[in-house]
Design brief:
alpha+beta; 3 helices
Length: 113
């Protein structure tokens, strides 16, 4: 399995990538399935993440993205209840040169602690 897209698409961890303006640029199949299980509508490549998040969540995310852009933090994570237990949501930034290029979100089904 040398095709990287095949790896990401078959990973049993939800992966969502967004640009610094919150536009979804990639979501693997597990992300779509998990969002359906959580009854969260609006996940779609090319759309703004506000389509699938509450306004108060977007306020928090804007602060996190700004902290990533300012290089104040290198990772952000939280836990929430999922369909079969705890979900751990991890956000990590990536940069193009010195500028925030976007954020990779991974949703692990279980606690990492």
């Amino acid at each position: 399995m040398s095709d990287v897209n095949t790896v990401w698409d078959n990973l049993n961890t939800a992966v969502i990538v967004s640009d610094p303006d919150f536009k979804v640029t990639y979501a693997n199949q597990r992300a779509y399935t998990l969002f359906d299980e959580l009854k969260i509508a609006g996940l779609e490549v090319g759309k703004n993440m506000a389509a699938c998040h509450k306004p108060e969540t977007m306020v928090k995310m804007k602060g996190i993205y700004q902290d990533f852009a300012d290089k104040k933090i290198k990772i952000n994570y939280l836990t929430m209840d999922g369909p079969e237990g705890t979900l751990t949501i991890v956000n990590v930034p990536f940069y193009v040169g010195d500028v925030l290029g976007g954020v990779v979100e991974m949703v692990f089904e279980g606690s990492l602690a």
